[in-house]
Amino acid sequence: MADLSSVQEVRDVTKVDRIGAHSHIRGLGLDDSLEPRKVSQGMVGQAQARRAAGVILEMIKEGKIAGRAILLAGQPGTGKTAIAQAISKAMDKDVPFTMLAGSELYSHELSKSEALTQAFRRSIGVRIKEETELIEGEVVELVVDRPATGSGQKVGQLTLKTTEMETVYDLGGKMIDSLIKQKVAAGDVVTIDKAAGKVTVIGRSFARARDFDAMGPQTKFVQTPEGDIQKRKEVVHTVSLHEIDVINSRSQGFLALFSGDTGEIKPEVREQINVKVAEWREEGKADIVPGVLFIDEVHMLDIECFAFLNRALENTMAPVLIMATNRGITNIRGTHYKSPHGIPLDLLDRTLIVPTTEYSQDELTQILKIRCEEEDVEMTDEALTLLTSIAKQTSLRYSIQLITAANLVCRKRKGTEVEKSDLRQVYSLFQDLERSVAFLKEYQQQFLFDEGDGSALAAASAAATSGAANAATSNASATTSSGPTAMEDDDDDL
Ligand SMILES: Nc1ncnc2c1ncn2[C@@H]1O[C@H](COP(=O)(O)OP(=O)(O)OP(=O)(O)O)[C@@H](O)[C@H]1O
Ligand SMILES: [Mg+2]
């Protein structure tokens, strides 16, 4: 059995998930009537925006409406990206969701319009229905004849049966290889996809249960199939228009899908594919599934990109476009004109705007608590209260980052629960924006390339204290920062 030993076993690799900024978000946390639960699926508060997201989700699920644009607008750290993540988690698996940051459009290899076109076509799914012929039955016998010389084509026969019939199939080399790989033996119930040459072992036949006495706990027993061995089955798979483009563009080939290095795709290729897909739709072989394109930091787009979006949204196959921004009234990139959120008015006019608002003390505590659970950190109630007040004074993001750091300090002193002292230590080790600005103000002369007029610092400190980057709408008067010692003073009260 020299051949068998060379067949390598395929082992499942245990998937290791890293903890990311939004890994605690598992859905929108809505009940059946789209009312947001207070704390659910990792989501806290932000009720209005979540309710709106629920309506959008329904719209996506219906899949009938094309080309709607939604803008999530609000201060930094109010959960815009989190809500978009939640929508993607709550969507059906076969509806495409593409995520793109505005800054990703500027690359030397792809023009902006090509990158946007690819993003749009990635977000449009084509559900293709196919009928395939399957062979399903219990293996009675598998005979493999090896050539006497040891090389050359293997041949063999496979005998399959159902409750009603028994058939012998001749096997080619490829089919023998995949049968051996799956360790198919007499008594197994298998299905074979003839066209793809794919063998699937469903389980072992009940009738032969007594013949196997050494079995793992994972051995599954099934009934011998009934009826014909040959069956017709409808299989449905969803691919995105972009995937069809890449596979059909001769210069790329499907391997480009794995490297992601697809380059520019010729318009003629896309044209042909659109025609083909339209044909399939008419013949009832395929459906279009409009998905979601999420563009984060949409203010990074310039006027040309916005013009592209305007036009692309009018296409009947357009996906739902979700955008997010934390800007106020600011320059539209590539022009001297100012506009709300840095987005031209004609695009804003087609957009449903969903605002996100700042969190209350309670909500901050809840979010921090969820993050502690996510990062496997135990924290005393007192420390959590302190962390909440840090979040209130600085920002939610900063205090989320303190959790892991404080836990490391706690572990160094061999503690099991993060206490106030650990938080205090990391708070003094790592500065937040506000304290960093105060430091710069004090020592600005000693830094290289100092502009000296302090206008940038004024804007930064306004942003730090108001918690908003929309300097244009917020009163940008330089708020005095409370300085590096503010925290130590506060501690006694907590
Ligand atoms: N309602 C919420 N429930 C749970 N976690 C949240 C919620 N809102 C925000 N978070 C978490 O707080 C952090 C900051 O939120 P997020 O990144 O979504 O902010 P943002 O609005 O996208 O900010 P920016 O404008 O800076 O991009 C993230 O880790 C996010 O998962
Ligand atoms: Mg964001």
UniProtKB/TrEMBL annotation:
Catalytic activity from the UniProt record? ATP + H2O = ADP + phosphate + H(+)
Q: Name one GO molecular function term.
A: ATP hydrolysis activity
> What is the protein name given in its UniProt record?
RuvB-like helicase
Q: State any GO CC term.
A: R2TP complex
Region Disordered, residue ranges: 468-494
For this protein, the Enzyme Commission number is 3.6.4.12
Q: Where in the cell is it found?
A: Nucleus
What keywords are annotated for this sequence in UniProt?
ATP-binding, DNA damage, DNA repair, Helicase, Hydrolase, Nucleotide-binding, Nucleus, Transcription, Transcription regulation
Q: What is its main location?
A: nucleus
Give the AAA+ ATPase domain ranges.
Answer: 66-358
